[in-house]
Amino acid sequence: MPKLTVQNLHDCEVEVAPGQTLLQALQDAGIDWMHACGGKGRCTTCRIIVQEGMEHFGPLTANEERYRNNDRLKDNERLTCQCTLEHGDARGSVPQQTMLPHMQYSS
Fold it and tell me: Which cofactor is recorded for it (predicted)?
């Protein structure tokens, strides 16, 4: 099963089931992750900065394409509520702007 490692959450490793969004996998693992619109792809608060393994993600969704075209989603970012990890492992981090105050982040 593909695995996501979140670097600035103390290298927390989360298994991502086939067809499962990253946000679903993170929540199933008990990790609180910002998602202001409720995981519907209407904002960019759930984004993740992908440091390794971008090639293992599924294709961009229509919402991700729209945000990318409007310069609200960088080439190294994905929306956790929209993207899947198709195969292989990936490494990413929570952007500074969307860190939750009650979570303990690492460098």
Answer: [2Fe-2S] cluster
